[in-house]
């Protein structure tokens, strides 16, 4: 291993084996690059599970300007319009690039794109592959391309434990595998580690996605943004499996409706009905369940008998549960699905730490605002990977200055199990001050330690503090004690030091109040 690692010194290091990381590595070719994946490629990537597809203005009746308008509307006032415009205009070319890499997108008999409709889109613009297996097909093609690429050194079973930073500049990565810890010297690191769903009890994300990239960036001193905005998908399969299987929004785009256990279509009087923005639908389902009802997705009429053909992945897990979607309503509930917040980056994916970039769900580009428009996430990862790679290539390639010698100490592998019940109770679909403060008190001790739960607790604490500070309801952040949106939307920014100071203040204030009572 020592010989291998010394040969990798001073090359860019990409951390994460999902669509964002794989595409960034491919775009960097032929420059040698090191790609770290904690698990075998595809095993723990949310990209693999993506059913919906990629949003891109590919239809004759569509235009990037319409896609932009839908994105801005869904983002509830927090999208960066210039960033969003640039990304949606690049989306059609990104789809074509994926097709050239071998992704077998669904086509009409005449060879044109078969485009689906999802919530809050004004046009059919969702590009699918194998029905509801888009993520799996994209990952298949990208993994094959990465394994063929001679300039990519793939290290599977390797986890990044911390970033080595001096004078606000990246100097290396402290990583670990089954043989122990080791250091890769580098001045360029790309974080592409995915989301935070694994921090919650009920999520559609792989359990191994619990904010590792956010912890790495925060401990390195990077600024994070909009962490309070967590998207709950309204139609996760309501069964015992964890992570929770997802019923793609495309099923509702095909005409399926939401009903409760009395048969009432409770979204019927809402603007957009079942295809309203996800935050609205998720809150409606959550409230219906809080009233003591079960909620179902009813696809018996639409798509009806075509269900298994159109949605083979969903049909398969429904069948395992003894449900035939063509004849039976499917039980659903909201579950954590996507994180709109992340590492604050510029238009090229650069963070506030020199030599540190972020791409995909771990980043906050400004595209999604407070509420991601359906199927904009895979598209963002693919589009932004090209820009991140270009920026990494253009950065200084000279060997970094000699850093202070580090003797790697075995760092504990992270375990989010202690964090999940705390975040699930305090940072759910509906939030309030008392619940958020309980979460902060529960997370603070572990976040300040160096145990296996420390990094997950740190990320959870930063999310909770950001939610505590935002005294309004907007998109994926809904406060029952502040149910209205403020007149103007302002992005939030937070550092590790800020989060710790604010949390300490909340805890000390409570202690003083308790002492004087």
> For the terminal residues, how far apart are their CA atoms?
60 Å
Q: Multimeric state of these chains?
A: single chain
The low-pLDDT segments are: none
CATH architecture of the largest domain: 3-Layer(bba) Sandwich
> Biggest sheet, strands in spatial order?
6-2-1-10-17
How many β strands by DSSP? 19
Radius of gyration: 22 Å
The portion of residues forming beta strands comes to 15-25%
Number of domains: 3
Number of helices: 16
- The CATH H-level homologous superfamily of the largest domain: FAD/NAD(P)-binding domain
Shape: globular
Enzyme class: oxidoreductase
Family: Belongs to the FAD-dependent oxidoreductase 2 family. NadB subfamily.
Keywords: FAD, Flavoprotein, Oxidoreductase, Pyridine nucleotide biosynthesis
Catalytic activity: L-aspartate + O2 = iminosuccinate + H2O2
Question: What are the defining features of this structure?
Answer:
517 residues, alpha/beta, FAD/NAD(P)-binding domain, Flavocytochrome C3, Chain A, domain 1, Methane Monooxygenase Hydroxylase, Chain G, domain 1, 5-stranded parallel beta sheet, 4-stranded mixed beta sheet, 35% helix, 16% strand, Fum_R/Succ_DH_flav-like_C_sf
What do these coordinates show?
Strand 7 (159-166) and strand 8 (169-177) form a beta hairpin. The chain has helices at 2-8, 19-28, 46-49, 64-74, 81-100, 134-148, 212-219, 250-253, 278-290, 307-310, 312-320, 376-394, 420-426, 433-447, 454-469, 496-516; strands at residues 13-15, 33-37, 54-55, 115-116, 126-127, 152-156, 159-166, 169-177, 180-185, 189-191, 224-225, 230-237, 257-260, 295-298, 330-339, 342-344, 356-358, 363-364, 493-494. A five-stranded parallel β-sheet has the order 6-2-1-10-17, with helices on one face. The protein has a four-stranded mixed β-sheet with strand order 18-16-11-19. Strands 12-15-14-13 form a four-stranded antiparallel β-sheet, with helices on one face. It is 35% helix and 16% strand. The chain folds into three domains: 2-229 and 340-394, FAD/NAD(P)-binding domain (3-Layer(bba) Sandwich); 230-337, Succinate dehydrogenase/fumarate reductase flavoprotein, catalytic domain (Flavocytochrome C3, Chain A, domain 1); 420-516, Fumarate reductase/succinate dehydrogenase flavoprotein-like, C-terminal domain (Methane Monooxygenase Hydroxylase, Chain G, domain 1), CATH 1.20.58. The chain is α/β, with parallel strands linked by helices and 517 residues long.
């Amino acid at each position: 291993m020592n010989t291998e690692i010394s040969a990798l010194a001073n090359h860019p290091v990409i951390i994460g084996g999902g669509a964002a990381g794989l595409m960034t590595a491919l775009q960097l070719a032929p420059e040698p690059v090191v790609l770290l994946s904690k698990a075998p490629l595809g095993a723990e990537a949310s990209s693999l599970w993506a059913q919906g597809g990629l949003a891109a203005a590919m239809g004759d009746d569509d235009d990037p300007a319409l896609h932009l308008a839908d994105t801005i509307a869904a983002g509830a006032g927090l999208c960066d319009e210039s960033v969003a415009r640039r990304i949606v205009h690049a989306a059609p070319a990104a789809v074509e690039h994926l097709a050239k890499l071998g992704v077998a997108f669904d086509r009409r008999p005449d060879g044109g794109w078969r485009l689906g409709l999802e919530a809050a889109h004004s046009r059919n613009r969702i590009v699918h592959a194998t029905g509801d297996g888009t993520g799996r097909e994209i990952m298949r093609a990208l993994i094959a391309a990465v394994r063929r690429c001679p300039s990519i050194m793939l290290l599977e079973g390797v986890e990044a434990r911390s970033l080595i930073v001096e004078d606000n500049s990246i100097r290396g990565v402290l990583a670990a595998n089954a043989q122990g810890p080791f250091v890769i010297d580098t001045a360029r690191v790309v974080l592409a580690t995915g989301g935070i769903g694994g921090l919650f009890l009920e999520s559609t994300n792989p359990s191994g996605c619990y904010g590792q990239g956010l912890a790495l960036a925060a401990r390195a001193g990077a600024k994070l943004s909009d962490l309070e905005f967590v998207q709950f998908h309204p139609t996760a399969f309501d069964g015992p499996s964890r992570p929770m299987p997802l019923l793609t929004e495309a099923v509702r785009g095909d005409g399926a409706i939401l009903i409760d256990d009395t048969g009432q279509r409770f979204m019927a009087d809402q603007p957009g009905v079942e295809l309203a923005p996800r935050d609205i639908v998720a809150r409606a389902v959550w409230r219906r369940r809080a009233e003591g009802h079960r909620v179902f997705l009813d696809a018996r009429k639409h798509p009806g008998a075509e269900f298994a053909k159109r949605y083979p992945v969903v049909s398969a897990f429904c069948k395992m549960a003894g449900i035939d979607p063509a004849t039976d309503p499917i039980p659903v509930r909201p579950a954590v699905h996507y994180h709109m917040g992340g590492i604050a980056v510029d238009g090229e994916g650069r963070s506030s730490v020199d030599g540190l970039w972020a791409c995909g769900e771990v980043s906050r580009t400004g595209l999604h605002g407070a509420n991601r428009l359906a199927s904009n996430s895979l598209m963002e990862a693919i589009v932004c990977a090209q820009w991140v790679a270009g920026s990494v290539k253009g950065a200084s390639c000279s060997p970094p200055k000699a850093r202070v010698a580090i003797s790697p100490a075995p760092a504990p592998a992270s375990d989010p199990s202690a964090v999940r019940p705390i975040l699930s109770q305090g940072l759910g679909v509906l939030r309030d001050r008392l619940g958020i403060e309980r979460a902060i008190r529960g997370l603070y001790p572990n976040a300040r330690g160096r145990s296996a739960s420390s990094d997950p607790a740190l990320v959870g604490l930063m999310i909770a503090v950001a939610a505590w500070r935002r005294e309004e309801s907007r998109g994926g952040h809904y406060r029952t004690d502040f149910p209205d949106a403020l007149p103007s939307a302002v992005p939030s920014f937070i550092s590790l030091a800020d989060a710790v100071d604010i949390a300490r203040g909340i805890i000390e204030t409570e202690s003083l109040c308790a002492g004087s009572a």
